[in-house]
């Protein structure tokens, strides 16, 4: 392990690696309340720390040991005293996109937040908790901003430089405005807010509300859960799961086309497709020629505390 090596022998790159490793541990100790990136940005702007990084290569071995200890104490201090302001480290926005509340409805109506960047998480849907990584099942519907593919990062986070920016900063949702890693007070007060649902967004479009209800009835997650429970005892149920997944896909495409719903907002209207979520049930669909197979790849860990 890097941290057991002797600092006197490190070159500048090794110093940086060991320090980053240590910062990660420090952030972990705070339960990631103080993000590692924030500790890094704060420490790197400290004049003494800057001097250590810049002059490390020319230091004598005994100076390096002393400087390493000094660097650790500066870092510890910065972790314990996060600046009461956003340093634009971007970590909040990487831990997951925001969930929307009723108060955000105006941002949608005025299209300050485009509809094609929204996604519905339906009741019963398996979701990975951003902090624990565990899968849990939603007890109620949520509307969220999309995340960058394969990550938990909000689509509106601009990460092109060290300092991250929000591309809809002036019109960011309530949860983002309340988020402050140095003070959780405003964030904790969100528990009194009402979550936004598709009923609120499409309140004036009866036909769409009917379709949403019908889709939930025919392709609800309860059905999928039930079949996966059966699958544990009877592998023949795999075909029923594949049929349901195919039916859900057909429903969204058929109804979407009939009603001229733009494909880019299917994930808002119908929620995420069964097909894209199948891995969260510990399975994947394999295709060989015209035949589709269900392959079991793991089990879903449920975390009731996170419901
Ligand atoms: S909307 Fe902006 S502030 Fe909110 S999570 Fe996305 S990038 Fe961050």
List the helices and strands and how they pair.
Elements: H1 12-29, H2 36-44, H3 47-55, H4 61-80, H5 91-94, H6 105-109, E1 118-121, E2 126-128, E3 135-137, E4 142-145, E5 157-158, E6 165-166, H7 174-178, H8 185-188, H9 198-201, H10 206-218, H11 221-231, H12 238-258, H13 266-269, H14 274-277, E7 283-288, E8 291-296
Antiparallel strand pairs: 1-4, 2-3, 5-6, 7-8
Helix pairs in contact: 1-4, 2-4, 11-12
The chain binds iron/sulfur cluster.
Determine the N-to-C terminus distance: 37 Å
The overall number of domains is: 3
Global outline: elongated
Helix content: 40-55%
Number of helices: 14
DSSP strand content: 5-15%
Spans of at least 5 consecutive residues with low confidence: 300-307
Structural features, described:
With 307 residues, this protein is mostly helical. The protein has 3 domains: 79 residues, no CATH class; 106 residues, no CATH class; 108 residues, no CATH class. It contains 14 helices and 8 strands. The strands form 4 sheets. It has a two-stranded antiparallel ribbon with strand order 1-4. Strands 2-3 form a two-stranded antiparallel sheet. It is elongated and about 75 Å long. The two termini are 37 Å apart. The C terminus is likely disordered. The structure holds iron/sulfur cluster. The site of iron/sulfur cluster (SF4) has 11 residues, from loops.
Q: Main attributes?
A:
3 domains; 307 residues; 8 strands; two-stranded antiparallel sheet; disordered C terminus; binds iron/sulfur cluster; elongated; two-stranded antiparallel ribbon; mainly alpha; 14 helices; single chain
């Amino acid at each position: 392990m890097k941290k057991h090596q002797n600092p006197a022998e490190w070159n500048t790159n090794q110093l940086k690696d060991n320090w980053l490793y240590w910062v990660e541990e420090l952030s972990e100790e705070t339960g990631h309340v103080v993000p590692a990136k924030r500790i890094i940005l704060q420490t790197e702007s400290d004049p003494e720390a800057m001097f250590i990084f810049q002059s490390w290569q020319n230091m004598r071995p005994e100076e390096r040991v002393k400087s390493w200890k000094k660097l650790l104490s500066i870092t510890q201090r910065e972790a314990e005293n996060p600046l009461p302001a956003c340093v634009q480290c971007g970590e909040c926005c990487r831990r997951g996109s925001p969930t929307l509340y009723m108060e955000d409805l105006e941002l949608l109506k005025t299209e300050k937040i485009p509809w094609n960047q929204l996604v519905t998480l339906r009741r019963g849907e398996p979701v990975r908790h951003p902090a624990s990584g565990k899968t849990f099942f939603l007890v109620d519907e949520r509307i969220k901003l999309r995340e960058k593919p394969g990550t938990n990062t909000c689509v509106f986070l601009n990460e092109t430089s060290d300092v991250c920016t929000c591309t809809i900063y002036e019109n960011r949702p309530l949860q983002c405005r309340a988020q402050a890693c140095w003070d959780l007070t405003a964030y904790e007060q969100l528990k009194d807010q009402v979550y936004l649902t598709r009923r609120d967004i499409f309140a004036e479009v009866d036909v769409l509300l009917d379709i949403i209800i019908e889709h939930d009835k025919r392709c609800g997650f309860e059905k999928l859960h039930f079949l996966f429970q059966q699958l544990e005892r009877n592998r023949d149920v795999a075909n029923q799961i594949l049929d349901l997944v195919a039916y859900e896909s057909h429903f969204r495409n058929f109804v979407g086309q009939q009603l001229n719903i733009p494909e880019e907002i299917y994930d808002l209207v119908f929620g995420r497709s069964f097909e894209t979520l199948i891995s969260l049930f510990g399975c994947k669909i394999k295709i060989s020629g015209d035949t589709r197979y269900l392959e079991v790849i793991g089990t879903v860990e449920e975390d009731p505390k996170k419901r």
